[in-house]
Design brief:
- The complex is a heterodimer of chains A (86) and B (201).
- With 86 residues, chain A is mainly α.
- Helices cover 87% and strands 0% of the residues of chain A.
- Chain A is built from 3 helices and no strands.
- Chain B is an all-alpha fold.
- Chain B has 8 helices and no strands.
- In chain B, helix 4 packs across helix 6 and helix 4 crosses helix 7.
- Classes of the chains: A mainly alpha (86), B mainly alpha (201).
Chain lengths: 86, 201
């Protein structure tokens, strides 16, 4: 796949995604197409910040959940290894 | 007369005693003979029993010895079987410990990793988080990962006003942002392109 093909395919994908976003946004909020397109850079920056914050929070919660599950699994193994009546 | 009577009486008593003693000895002799006969019969039977035992006991003891030898051999086999079973049990125990050590640790790590991924994904995709971080809004209420127009409504409203389509934007814009944008329509285009007001959130 050549560079031009990649550019064309990428542009088509981006265009479809942009069209879908604009139409959906307009259907939801009633804004004009021009307003939506002009607000896209700000939207992208906002999405980036939001994703970064949420990713950090999700990472912390994931690590906490993994440690909690690991401790629970260890406890279950310890209980399963004990002889009956112990 | 008296003397003769006394002599007769004495001789009679002596005679009676003699007869009594003789009778007693005869009775004793008969009893002893009977006892000896019985003892002889008993000794004869004992001799016969001993002869039978001597005749049949030796082969019986030989058979018992042979049987004991077989039992001892079988007991040796049972002992060997018990040792083999104990060895197999030890090997199974070792193998079970090895399998447990080889399986439990990766399973534990995999379970922890999957739980961590699940927690992270659920936290990342949680809808109410998006509303809290982006300041809320119509879109944030509908979808947490979707765009929240509260902060970015000002430039959009401004552009809407400048483009002359304020009727469409007025349906959803907020009063504060809408009023601010309406006051300075000339600067709203720059604000919309660089995304300044939205970054302040």
């Amino acid at each position: 796949m050549g560079l031009s093909t990649r550019l064309v395919v990428g542009g088509a994908v981006v265009g479809v995604a942009l069209t879908y976003h604009v139409r959906r946004r307009r259907a939801r909020t009633g804004e004009s197409y021009l307003a939506i397109i002009r607000g896209l850079p700000g939207d992208v920056l906002r999405w980036t910040d939001e994703a970064r914050d949420r990713a950090a929070l999700a990472l912390d919660e994931g690590v906490t959940a993994a440690r909690r599950r690991d401790a629970e699994f260890g406890r279950q193994l310890l209980v399963a290894g004990e002889p009956p009546g112990a | 007369m008296d003397f003769s009577f006394a002599m007769l009486t004495a001789s009679t008593a002596s005679t009676v005693l003699s007869y009594a003693a003789a009778f007693f000895f005869v009775v004793v002799a008969v009893a002893a003979a009977y006892a000896l006969v019985k003892a002889g019969k008993a000794l004869e039977r004992v001799d016969k029993v001993l002869a039978d035992v001597d005749e049949e006991g030796v082969p019986l003891m030989r058979k018992a010895g042979t049987t004991l030898d077989g039992v001892n051999a079988n007991l040796g086999n049972v002992d060997q079987i018990t040792k083999d079973v104990a060895d197999i049990t030890d090997k199974i125990d070792t193998m079970a410990n090895a399998v447990e050590g080889a399986v439990s640790t990766p399973a534990r790590k995999a379970a922890a990793f999957s739980a961590g991924v699940q927690g992270a994904v659920s936290s990342f995709m949680r809808r109410d988080k998006g509303a809290g971080t982006t300041g809320g809004g119509d879109a944030a209420a509908s979808s947490g990962w979707a765009y929240a127009p509260a902060g970015g409504a000002a430039p959009e409203d401004a552009t809407a006003d400048s483009a002359g389509v304020s009727d469409d934007a007025g349906a959803t814009k907020e009063p504060v942002s809408g009023s601010g944008a309406g006051e300075a329509p000339g600067t709203s285009g720059d604000a919309a392109t660089d995304g300044g007001p939205s970054r302040e959130d």
